[in-house]
Amino acid sequence: MSDLVEVEPGVWSVIDGTRVYEVRVVGEQVLVNGQAVEVASRKAAAGSASGPVHVRATMPGKVVRVLVEVGDAVSAGQGVIVVEAMKMQNELKSPRDGRVMQIAAAPHTTVDAGVVLVTIE
């Protein structure tokens, strides 16, 4: 089972068993541990994904705003929830087109890193 956490905008940590990968998106280029890899366009990948995806808290913080409601249609890259951490507000975005199936956090609640905040199907 793999775990994916956005550690900063455009940079993800992927943990697959005992292996850890840094995935960095720079423009249209994707680097895995510093090596360029060829991938399908993000728009094509977003449109072809199936099954639920989760928007997770990238670090501990406080939910400031929920930008969507259950049942809302969302587009890849659309903001769905805002979490404040270390006095900075971070707008977490939908990883793909879909529909909001569940919202697991409410404004003014604290969340831990990695906790599922929004589920999109």
Structural description of this entry:
There is one protein chain. Helix content is 6%, strand content 55%. The protein has 121 residues and is mainly beta. The chain is built from one helix and 13 strands; from the N terminus they run βββββαββββββββ. The longest helix has 7 residues, at 42-48. The chain has two domains: 1-39, no CATH class; 50-121, RNA polymerase II/Efflux pump adaptor protein, barrel-sandwich hybrid domain (OB fold (Dihydrolipoamide Acetyltransferase, E2P)). The model has no long low-confidence stretch (mean pLDDT 85). The strands form three sheets. It has a five-stranded antiparallel β-sheet, with no helix packed on it. A four-stranded antiparallel β-sheet has the order 6-13-11-8, with no helix packed on it. Strand 3 (19-26) and strand 4 form a beta hairpin.
**Can you name the CATH architecture of the largest domain?**
Beta Barrel
Total DSSP helices: 1
Low-confidence stretches: none
- Write down the overall geometry: globular
Total number of beta strands? 13
Q: Can you summarize the main beta sheet?
A: 5 strands, antiparallel
Query: Percentage of helical residues?
Result: under 10%
SS-based class: mainly beta
Number of domains: 2
Terminal CA distance reads: 20 Å
Radius of gyration: 15 Å
Spatial order of strands in the largest sheet:
1-2-3-4-5
CATH domain class of the largest domain: Mainly Beta
Q: Classify the fold: give the CATH topology of the largest domain.
A: OB fold (Dihydrolipoamide Acetyltransferase, E2P)
